[in-house]
Amino acid sequence: MKKNESKFIGIKEIVAVTLFSVLTFVISMLTAMPFAASVHLQLYVGYALMAIISGPIYVLMISKAPKIGTQVLFFGLKGLYMLLMGQVLTGIIFIIGGVLCELIVMGDGYRNMVKSGVAYALHTTLYGLGSFFPVIFFADNYAKQLIDKGYQQELVDTMLSLYRSPLIVATVALVLMISSVIGMCIGSRMIKKHFQPAGVA
Amino acid sequence: MPFDEVDVRTRLLVMILVSFAALMLKTEIALLLCLVFMWIWLIPFGCFRKLLQCTTAYGILFGLLFLMKNSEHLGNLPLLTVYIRRLLLPVMAAAPVIHAPTGSLIAALNKLKIPRAATLSLTVMFRFMPTLAEEYLRIRESQKIREISIFRHPVKTAECILVPMLIRTSKVADELSASVQVRGMKLGGAYSSYRKSEFNARDRRLMMLGTITVLLIFLTDYCLRRG
Amino acid sequence: MLIELHDISYKYAGASDKSLKNVSFTMDKGECILLTGESGCGKTTLTRIINGLCPKFYGGTFSGSYLLDGKNAQELELDEIGKYIGNVFQDPRSQFFTSNVTDEIVLAMENQNYTRERMKCRLYEISTLLGIENLLEKDLLRLSSGEKQKVAVAAACVTKPKILVLDEPSANLDADSTRQLGELLYRLKMQGMTIIISEHRLEYLADLIDKMVLMKNGEIIAVYSGEEARHLSDDRLCEMGLRLFYPHDYQNISTEIGAESFLQMKHIVCKCRKATILDRITLYAAKGKILAITGRNGTGKTTLCRIAAGLRKENSGDVIINGVHIRRQDRLKKCFFVGQDSDYQLYAPTVLDEILLNRKKTPETIRRAEQLLQQLDLSAFSERHPASLSGGQKQRVLLAVAVMWERPVLILDEPTSGLDGRHMREMASLLRKIADDGMCIILITHDAELIGNCADAVYKLECSCLEKMSKEVF
Q1: Judged by CB atoms within 8 Å, which residues 115-144 of A form the interface with C?
Q2: CA distance readout (Å), A153 to A10, A157, B221, C197, C395
Q3: What is the ipTM of this complex?
Q4: What is the DSSP letter of C443?
């Protein structure tokens, strides 16, 4: 005998999604670190790694919590973190992103790997680009600090130009999207190989 | 510690003000004033470790900036040190919030009319962030015993970290939600709070002082830029 | 009757077999009932049926009737059942929602909308009854496992539920804490609480129980009254695959290793921040011998063994293997350390793959692996995912992995916690056999029966100092 299962997120799902969201967040920090010295490596290799490793986490999460609210929570938590850290704009963008992802998987999205994949790609791309936003909008603050120390104006401009170049932004977005797809594929394989036999999926 | 009774909402306000300041301030001196403010704020709460760790990091990054002035091939590193240094301030400001007993945090969030689902999520997040680090270390340690090295087999290592980590997280999530649900937790329904979330005269004073301090820092920043 | 279960059958979602088959069970107010049986017999599932987690939380298919205090439990929600039943689970780490002792205890009351005055009153009552007044307001994560379980019991009983259900609560506790847990349960029983415990470790429950329910393969095969249970002979208990109610006083264990020592740890000092965990500890272990290290939780047994295995650096002291001083990095190759928590040590998709992980897959090694599986009674599981096995089965898989690596020293941390009597005895004889083949084995354990069955010498670690044990009961 079973009561009607709610379509909305419940306590069990909230706890699971929160923990998985925190995991992906920590992974994004860990994959960025080794490449801190070179911005190119960080943007391409670091981000790609993050998207690929977080793929299985996302796939496991949606198999455990295929309810309305999962996407919003998954992305929204990161938005909340940004808000609390003072990055108001990024935070709001992430929360709106969460709502968008939720709309994408509305209906039968969780059983449809394509829709779920699109939501994941959107989430990862926005999240990766999220680190660009403070630089784009508050670049002057950072620039002033460097110039005050005696850094040359041109050097500073070069550093910042990277983030402002539409070509770079587009390339990074592409890298993120492709890695997201790879991450989803790896995730699907891991679910069949490990998590379903283990009884956690 | 003297500030143990300070309401969590007061702590949250200061945290948000400082985070905002860390983003918007332009001059080095203003940022330093923020750091000083953090010292004054954190000491009565007893968050000494966090204070020392963050100040040391701040100092190192500051010093690095000078050292890197003359070399050109470091790419983005100088920008990064500036960026991270700014992030340290909100991290410090968050310490009194994280160290408050969970019940106080929940009581404050309830007073702020945050929906139960969000409160639940935030509580779980704060409660489990430290344990995640511990779990990761344990997994890595037993991999050393089996000679799974990240350099020789990077893909296998990644799989060997991810699989137990995810299985563990999944189990912890299930066990935790089972444990709270059998103790009556629901998303709807009536519930009370053992801890009080109340403003007293000291909280009001602290909120006012905190706001004024941050405003003064912004003013200093503005004057320094002008002059 | 407080609980009436009639003809209950249950199958977890995605499982191939039923976990419970036609189980019928009743319980009266004030009774203390022990549910026991070999691993996998269904006792945990039965506790989950009683507290409603199966099927409401875990899904699955359920048939039969369950009356809780006269009401049909299938029509009650989890939180409503929670008003009748308090729960204590096995793992303190994942049953605590907050980081503060007081917050954890009052959680159930907050969810039932108690007034603050009533909460204060109940908090005082329960903490006095269970003797934990000194723990209030402390940081939960810093408590010992024994203290954590006391808090868990308080949190479960604070709303005065009629029934308390405990699922292997002593799994991570040392002998002293287990005894204290038994005393706590006795106090609760005197207050009129009805108690159901699912357990392997029987010694702390001997005088407490009114009924013992023996399960096997999802069915109840026998019910004994408390008196009958206490009078069961040791042989009968062993036959049933259970541990003993009254484990022996192990007098014949020597305190000398006897043979020439293979592993020597001399004057090991280990500090953590300002505290000294190990204070000039000296220890000898020999090939072909099993050394057991016991002592209260938190005294540094695991730290000492991790130093031996090369997982932690000592502040000062020497580790000598086969007469040669060994540096930390090289110790990793000489010792195989099997930790307490199997979840962190299993990586492969099948049990066979796990044993052969990072080893060359040749016909020989595969044969050796299959042989090991047979010796450990795991052949049926060779294609199963390690994480889908029970706790005891995982421990055995790890033992197989350890033996496969053929390193001269084998260190096991609590290998039998959570193991039923039969498997504990089988592991003891297997360890005996491995030792006889020439391995040097060190066991960290609280398990008195295990020590009695296979140890050659026992050391007790007490407050950072090592004492050789003489004729003491654990």
Answers
A1: none
A2: 53, 6, 21, 73, 63
A3: 0.88
A4: E
pTM for this predicted structure: 0.90
Distance from CA of B50 to the nearest CA of A (A): 16
Query: What is the Cα–Cα distance from C173 to B193, expressed in whole angstroms?
Result: 32
Residue C361 has pLDDT above 70, yes or no: yes
Is C256 part of a structural domain of the chain?
Answer: no
Q: How many CB atoms lie within 10 A of CB C298?
A: 15
pLDDT at B36 over 90: yes
pLDDT over 70 at B74, yes or no: no
- The answer to whether residue C250 sits within a structural domain is no
Burial category of C44 from C-beta neighbours within 10 Å (exposed 0-12, middle 13-18, buried 19 and up): buried
Domain membership flag for residue C146: yes
Q: Measured between CB atoms, which of A2, A12, A199 is closest to C55?
A: A2
Choose among B147, B178, B184: nearest Cβ to C57: B178
- The owner of tokens 């706790």 is C391
Tokens coding B17: 């003000």
Both C24 and C130 in one domain: the answer is yes
- For residues C134 and C214, membership in a common domain is answered with yes
Instruction: Write out chain A residues lying below 8 Å of B124, CB-based.
Output: 14-15, 18-19
The CATH number covering residue C453 comes to: 3.40.50.300
Q: Per residue in C120-165, pLDDT tens? A: 999 999 999 999 999 999 999 888 888 999 999 999 999 999 999 9
**Looking at the predicted structure, is the pLDDT value of residue C471 above 50?**
no
Nearest beta carbon to residue A22 from set B25, B132, B162: B132
**C181 vs B: CB within 8 A:** no
pLDDT tens-digit series, residues C58-109 = 989 999 999 999 999 999 999 999 999 999 998 888 899 998 999 999 999 9
Is residue C170 located within the same domain as residue C302?
Answer: no
Residue C470, judged by CB atoms within 10 A of its CB (0-12, 13-18, 19+), counts as: exposed
Q: Which residues of C touch A (CB under 8 A)?
A: 12, 14, 55, 57, 59, 62, 74, 349, 384-388
In a domain, C247, yes or no: no
